[in-house]
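Weekly sync, protein design subgroup
Attendees: M.S., D.O., the rotation student, P.L. (late)

Item 1: inverse folding check
M.S. brought a backbone from last month's batch and wanted to see whether the design step gives back something sensible before we order anything. D.O. pointed out we never logged the input encoding, so this time it goes straight into the notes. Structure tokens as presented (656 positions):
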């Protein structure tokens, strides 16, 4: 394959001149340095970008591969690196966070103020008995408190696990139970798009579901001040406790491999996995990629629109920008409230220079701008912007072009960053002062990342041929293990198919025959990407069949969707005769609500189709590829000769 899009976008000259990585020759030199001596390269950067309490003497220990260790005899503290260090460099009065609430209210905190809040919160955690290595689940809205909570855990060596506010009580319980958390940090309520979500009540429900007996306390922040159920002595109001604490807190110096956080993500089978990241290597890549991919400079105003419940919000809100002493915007709300011009208004108001968002948001804002001219980006002054970023899913060339022209005024490079929860930070991405862009391609690996496209046997494929995306060498911010399940870590990411040597990303990719640029062709496992959120089909299937009263059997596949990238399509066999018409619609609505309760609203199937059965082979295996065609509304061209019950396909094609 070669790129079908023939447009080329060269980096603007003034940007190239002043960029941290300036020009293709500089990029090539970094790639060559990393290639010739990976340990020398990563060691050099780890000394430049991270302050160590005790310097490391060893860069990589691969003696227990694939359980790699980086900088493992060094000690450091992530919160020291993100806060104290900046203040020591004279940035105490610099704005760290510009927080804009759902209703538009703006709060600013400086680095000195942020440090004080982190220290008080860290002391509050300590006063509740939280110690190094303990797990703390954070179920907080997008807020300064959310970032403070993460940094406070890092300060005392507690391992945080942030759970996205959109997850249900059941999903929250599963994560609390799996981590063995001793404390949950939450707020009375969350407000997004004018709607209130009762976070504290959801925490109560989660804990009541059982299996969370190690939780001693729930620390509750105030967001709305609404009355919420409160169980003393388990529940504690955060403001009273935190404000009473000393304003300083000596950082806990941890080994580089000490886990910084666990973050749950969906795999192709089984329950969500707790991806474990290590302090030293992760922090290095967070800072490094923030500087090189976003070319962050002291005067920049960075805005990453992700939620701290996802890895993007970890690396590019809670850690990366702070490690560089940058100023960033943190936003509580949603892009469409009070109207779909909110992002553009905020860029204008806060003079945002580097803006990082997801294709799904762009696609929905294109639609909105086409329908309502007053929310079109051209109605706003976006001249502060200099770099745009995209993350979470492939950005289709039409959305790319609109983003480039209408938002970036044709002058801002778009960095289409490919990476994953497991990779900790950017893996394949343009650099704004280096890369000639091709819409729809994430271009070339970040220097030091040895991405490749291989066949099923691990043989590297020539450019132009599609295959499996792997990473051939370890890198500092890679996943260390799956919490509590090292076996699953090995089999998921370092499978024997590649002799356990290569990291398997789970995506397909192809390199352009001429430029070697990568294009991601989508997941090669049963993982869906809905609005940039990763969902396991098996997870949704288990949620559906857990509705034992109604559901006999369920199969979930993805289909293409114009706005959300992929949409969830569920095929369901009920324990009663196949419903049609009004009844089918009613049951479908019930099942959607059921899934929202089991997992969260993001997992609600868009389509639900009912059948008397599912298409199966004679040995009883569900034929998913047929279901994918049905979901897509395509004519069935595949061989159906092995199908036990071909008539079922027509039935499943009917929409309810
Ligand atoms: C999966 C990882 C990366 C942080 C947010 C999502 C897809 C991610 C891109 C991109 C094409 C992308 C992949 C990947 N993905 N970025 N720029 N182009 N696909 O993290 O939830 O761990 O999901 O998102 O399929 O495997 P995640």
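Designed sequence read out in the meeting:
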């Amino acid at each position: 394959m070669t790129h079908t899009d023939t447009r080329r976008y060269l980096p603007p000259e003034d940007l190239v001149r002043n960029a941290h990585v300036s020009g293709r020759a500089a990029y090539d030199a970094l790639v060559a340095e990393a290639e010739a001596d990976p340990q020398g390269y990563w060691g050099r950067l780890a000394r430049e970008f991270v302050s160590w309490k005790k310097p490391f003497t060893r860069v990589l220990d691969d003696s227990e591969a694939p359980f790699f260790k980086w900088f493992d005899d060094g000690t450091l503290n992530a919160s020291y690196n993100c806060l104290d260090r900046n203040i020591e460099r004279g940035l105490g009065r610099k704005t760290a966070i510009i927080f804009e609430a759902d209703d538009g209210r703006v709060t600013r905190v400086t680095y000195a103020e942020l440090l004080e809040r982190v220290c008080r919160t860290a002391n509050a955690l300590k006063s509740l008995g939280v110690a190094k290595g303990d797990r703390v689940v954070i179920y907080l809205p997008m807020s300064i408190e959310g970032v403070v909570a993460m940094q406070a855990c890092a300060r005392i060596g507690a391992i945080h696990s942030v759970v996205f506010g959109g997850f249900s009580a059941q999903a929250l319980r599963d994560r609390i139970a799996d981590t063995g958390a001793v404390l949950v940090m939450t707020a009375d309520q969350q407000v997004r798009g004018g709607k209130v979500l009762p976070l504290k009540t959801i925490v109560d429900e989660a804990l009541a579901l059982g299996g969370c007996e190690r939780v001693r306390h729930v620390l509750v922040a105030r967001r709305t001040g609404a009355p919420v159920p409160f169980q003393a002595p388990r529940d504690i109001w955060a403001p009273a406790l935190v404000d009473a604490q000393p304003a300083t807190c000596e950082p806990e110096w941890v080994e580089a491999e000490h886990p910084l956080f666990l973050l749950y993500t969906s795999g192709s089978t089984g329950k969500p996995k707790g991806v474990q990241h290590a302090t030293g290597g992760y922090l290095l890549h967070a800072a490094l990629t923030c500087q090189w991919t976003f070319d962050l400079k002291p005067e920049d105003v960075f805005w990453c629109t992700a939620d701290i419940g996802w890895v993007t919000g970890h690396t590019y809100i809670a850690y990366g920008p702070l490690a560089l002493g940058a100023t960033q915007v943190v936003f509580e709300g949603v892009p469409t409230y009070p109207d779909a011009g909110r992002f553009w208004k905020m860029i204008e108001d806060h003079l945002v220079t580097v803006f990082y968002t997801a294709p799904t948001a762009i696609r929905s804002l294109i639609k909105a701008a086409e329908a309502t001219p007053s929310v079109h980006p051209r109605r706003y002054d976006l001249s502060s912007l200099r770099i745009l970023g995209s993350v979470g899913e492939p950005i289709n060339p039409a959305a790319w072009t609109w983003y480039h022209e209408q938002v970036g005024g044709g002058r801002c490079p778009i960095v289409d960053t490919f990476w994953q929860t497991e990779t900790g930070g950017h893996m394949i991405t343009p650099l704004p002062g280096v890369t000639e862009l091709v819409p729809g391609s994430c271009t070339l690996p970040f220097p030091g990342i040895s991405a490749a496209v291989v066949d099923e046997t691990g043989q590297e494929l020539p450019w132009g041929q599609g295959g499996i995306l792997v990473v051939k060498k370890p890198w500092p911010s890679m996943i260390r293990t799956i919490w509590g399940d090292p076996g699953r870590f090995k089999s998921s990411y370092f499978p024997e198919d590649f002799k356990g040597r290569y990291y398997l990303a789970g995506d397909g990719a192809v390199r352009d025959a001429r430029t070697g640029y990568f294009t991601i062709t989508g997941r090669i496992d049963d993982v869906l990407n809905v609005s940039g959120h990763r969902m396991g089909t098996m997870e949704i299937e288990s949620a559906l069949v857990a509705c034992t009263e109604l559901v006999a059997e369920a199969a979930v596949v993805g289909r293409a969707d114009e706005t959300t990238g992929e949409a969830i399509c569920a095929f369901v066999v009920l324990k009663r005769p196949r419903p049609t018409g009004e009844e089918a619609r009613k049951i479908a609505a019930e099942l959607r609500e059921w899934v929202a309760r089991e997992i969260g609203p993001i997992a609600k199937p868009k389509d639900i189709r009912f059948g008397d059965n599912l298409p199966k082979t004679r040995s009883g295996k569900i034929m998913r590829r047929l279901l994918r065609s049905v979901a897509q509304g395509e004519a069935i061209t595949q061989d159906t000769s092995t199908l036990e019950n071909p008539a079922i396909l027509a039935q499943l094609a009917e929409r309810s």
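Discussion: Residues 581-598 form the longest helix (18 residues). The mean pLDDT is 95.
Action: P.L. to compare against the previous round before Friday.
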